[in-house]
Amino acid sequence: MQFGLNFKSGIAVYLQLVEQVKAAAASGALQTGEPLPSIRTLSEDLRVNRNTVAKAYAELESQGVIETIAGKGCFVRAGGTSPLRKDARRKRLAEKIDDAVVHAHHLQIERDDFLKLAEQRYDALAGRRARALTAE
Amino acid sequence: MQFGLNFKSGIAVYLQLVEQVKAAAASGALQTGEPLPSIRTLSEDLRVNRNTVAKAYAELESQGVIETIAGKGCFVRAGGTSPLRKDARRKRLAEKIDDAVVHAHHLQIERDDFLKLAEQRYDALAGRRARALTAE
Amino acid sequence: MQFGLNFKSGIAVYLQLVEQVKAAAASGALQTGEPLPSIRTLSEDLRVNRNTVAKAYAELESQGVIETIAGKGCFVRAGGTSPLRKDARRKRLAEKIDDAVVHAHHLQIERDDFLKLAEQRYDALAGRRARALTAE
Amino acid sequence: MQFGLNFKSGIAVYLQLVEQVKAAAASGALQTGEPLPSIRTLSEDLRVNRNTVAKAYAELESQGVIETIAGKGCFVRAGGTSPLRKDARRKRLAEKIDDAVVHAHHLQIERDDFLKLAEQRYDALAGRRARALTAE
DNA sequence: GTGGTCTAGACCACC
DNA sequence: GTGGTCTAGACCACG
User: Do D93 and C80 make contact, defined as CB atoms within 8 angstroms?
Assistant: First the structure.
C-alpha cells in the first residue's frame, strides 16, 4: 500500500487513512485476507503518531472493512465490500479530479499546464511506488 | 445558489462552504460581481452559526475568490486575479492532484484512464463555464 | 516576547497582535524557528479570549509569517518565503507607504526629510536584525 | 486638506479621518480658525456615507480639536493643540514609517526598492495635491 | 440591513 | 499538552 497524507488539508489524518484503505478495498487493490501494514510500521513510515493509525484501523474495523486479530495483525475482511465495477470507480475518481480542476481554475492554471502537471504527478507517484517495491 | 452540508463527513463545515463557493464560481453558477447570500441569511438556511459562515467568507476573501464590502455584502471577484507567484500556484495545485493520483492508484485506475479522465473533467468544467456565460 | 494591547485604540485586538509579531520577527526579536507562546498561555497573559489569539495566529499563518503545527505549537517561519507575486507585494507595501505619506503631509514634513527618515528607519531595522542574529 | 482612506485596513474610517485632522492641526497645516470641508462635500469627495464624516467631526469636537457652529461649518479651535515641535512631528511620522519598514521586510522588498517606492508615492501624492489646488 | 470583533464555553484531533 | 471548530449571544462600524 502507498498512502498519501496531507497535514494541511483540514481533514483529520486518520480519516484520510480510512478513506484510502476503503478505496483500495473497493477496487480490489487490497484483496480479501490480505494483511495491512502493522500499526507500528505504518506510523513510522508516515511520521504519524501510533494512536492516529490505531484510530484509523479501529474505525475501519467498526465499519466492517477489516478484521483485527490480536497478536497477528489486521486483515481485509471478505464480503460486505464487493469490488466496484470499473465505471463506478471512475466516477469516484472523477470527484477528486473535479476538485483539482476547480482549484486549477482559481489558481489560473491553463489546460496544458494542468494536464502536464497531472501526468508529472502520476508518474512521480508511480516512480516512488516502484522504488518502494524494489527496496523490499 | 444551493449549498449542502454534511455534518458527519469529518470535514469542517466552513471548508465545505469554501469548496462549494469555489466550485460554483469556477463553473459559472456564480458569475463575477454576483452577490453571495448574506451571512445571516445563509447561516439560517443552513442551520449553522453566523460565525461559521463568516469564517468561510473570510477564507474566500483571503483566497481572492470573493470581495467583501462591510455594510454591503460579499461579491464574486473576477477571475485572473490571483496574487500568487506561478510556482506557488502550481505547488498548491500539485497537492490537489496528488490527492487524486493516490485515489487513482487505490481505485486501480491506469495511467491512460487517469489522464483521459483529467482531460474530460477539465473540458467539462470549461464547457459549463462557457455555457453559463452565454446563457446570461 | 512581551506584547502590549490597547483596548481603546479602535484597532482590533487580533490585528494589534499580528502587527507586533510581524515587527518582532522583522527586528530579529523573534528568530526563525522560535516557538510563539501557546494560544492558551498568551490569551491568559493578555486577559483576552482564546479565540482572539487564535485568530491572530491564523492570520499570521495565512500571511506566511508563522507555521502552526496542530498539537505542537506555532513557530516563526524563515524569511524570504512570500508566495506573492512581486507586483502584488509592491502594491501592498505601497498602501502602507501611502499611509505614511499622508501623515507626512499632515505633519508638514518635507520631501527630503521624509525620504531621509525612510532611509534611517529602514537601516535601523536592518541593523537591529543583524545584531540580533550575531548575538544569538 | 488631502485625506487618504484605506477601507481594508481594519481601522474604522471615521477614526482615520480623526487621526488625520489631528495630525494636520498638530503640525500647523490646519491653522486656528481655518474651516474644515463641509460634511456633505467631504463625504462626496471620499465616497463615504455622510454619517461617517459626521461621526468623525463629532469625535473631533468632543476632543476639543474643532468647533462646530451650526449653519456655518466646522473650524479648528484655538489653544489646547499647540503646534508640535519639528522633532516631535518627525517622531510621530517615524512610527508610521517603521510600520511600512516592517511590512517591507515580510514582503521581501529590498532597500533600494523600498526607498524608490517611498519617493514615488510621495511625489504621486504631492502631484495629486497640486492638481487639486489648481483645479479649485 | 450589511459584515467585523469579541467573549464564554463546548468538543475534537493530534502529540 | 497543543491547535481547530462550532455555538450562542453581545456590541460596533457602515449604508
Answer: no
